[in-house]
Amino acid sequence: MVPFVGCKSDGQVGPLDAPKGKSRAFPISSDVAEKLAYYEAEDGPGVLAPRGWNCFGTYGSSGSNLYVSPEPIDAASIFTDRWPGFSGPAIQLSYEDGGTSGRFGVASAIARVFPAYRAFTRKVIAEGIRPTSDFPYGSLPHDKMTYKGNRIAEYETPPNKDGLGTESYLKKNDRPIEGVLVLSGPKSELDLTSLSMRLPANAADLAVAIREQVEREAGQP
């Protein structure tokens, strides 16, 4: 059992209070469970993260983001150019709706990571709203990729390198960024859930549990 932590959020229709929830059971060892909590905002998926961290969510018609960090999150600056992102440990869970303006992010990820679904990218390019250059094909050179089927791609961006990990609000430093991208939904309207996480060295053993929870929940209808 893992305790539930509600997260405040802000977005298209204004600020939302943190939801209330109950502890949840996960298929993980008790030793790992004792170090984790389940964080969730009102609008969007939740994520496992180390206990005692801070969280905040954003949402809109295109999808949602959930940020979890040991440092306080300045909610007032998230929607401005002043927000620097995360230079230290942090977790970002993002959901992009392929049936809305979120389709541009989905199409970009497919072009780089999911070759079996590039018809979706070609369809978005054919709309003529965004230039073809916004959808480069091929994986990023520094990333280490591990595929678990054609809809789930785990990755690791090495320390001090740009890659899938730094396409989030996690800035590169001397520790790697791990994560996973998961496609869901029908081929004509694919959605994307993406996880980026950089854990402290003393919490590295939690990475597998966090990543696999995202894979389980994102892959469900």
Describe what this molecule looks like in 3D.
This protein has one domain (4-218). It has helices at 30-33, 103-113, 118-126, 207-218, and strands at 4-7, 9-11, 36-41, 47-50, 54-60, 63-69, 90-96, 144-147, 152-157, 177-184, 191-198. It has 221 residues and is of the alpha+beta class. It is built from 4 helices and 11 strands. The model has no long low-confidence stretch (mean pLDDT 95). The strands form 2 sheets. Strands 2-5-6-7-11-10-9-8 form an 8-stranded mixed beta sheet, sandwiched between helices. A 3-stranded mixed beta sheet has the order 1-3-4. Strand 10 (177-184) and strand 11 (191-198) form a beta hairpin. Helix 2 (103-113) packs across helix 3 (118-126).
Return residue spans where pLDDT drops below 50 for at least 5 consecutive residues.
none
Structural class: alpha+beta
Shape: globular
Mean pLDDT: 95
Strand order of the largest sheet: 2-5-6-7-11-10-9-8
Radius of gyration: 17 Å
Work out the helicity level: 10-25%
Element string (H = helix, E = strand): EEHEEEEEHHEEEEH
Number of helices: 4
| Percent range for β-strand residues | 25-35%
What's the domain count?
1
Q: How can the largest sheet be summarized?
A: 8 strands, mixed
Number of strand segments:
11
How far is the first residue's CA from the last residue's CA?
Answer: 24 Å
